[in-house]
Write a structure and sequence with these properties.
Number of helices: 2
Order of helices and strands: EEHEH
Structural class: alpha/beta
Distance between the termini: 17 Å
Number of strands: 3
Shape: flat
Largest sheet: 3 strands, parallel
Oligomer: single chain
Length: 86
């Protein structure tokens, strides 16, 4: 599972309990610290929820970066996919 400048959606007061299991699923969440669409706390919350479902979560917040995708994210995701396809 890959979230580039992303997090779980829904209103702030929505219940954050989800059924099911990610049981070891690799998850990458990357976001800019200055992203005006996605607050840092929403990315942190998504990481916590996905971990509670059993996901193997990597969360990376990039300082001084807005709503964009970085080369570092592309390289991480590329390596993640290569590892998963082995």
């Amino acid at each position: 599972m890959i979230g580039l400048s992303g997090a779980l959606i829904g209103p702030d007061d929505a219940p954050r309990s989800y059924p099911g299991s990610l049981e070891g699923t690799s998850v990458f969440l990357g976001c800019g610290a200055m992203d005006f669409h996605i607050p840092r706390q929403r990315v942190d919350q998504a990481a916590d929820i996905l971990e509670s479902l059993g996901g193997n979560v990597t969360e990376r917040i990039y300082p001084n970066l807005g709503h964009t995708v970085t080369q570092a994210e592309i390289e991480f995701v590329s390596n993640m996919m290569k590892t998963l396809l082995k």
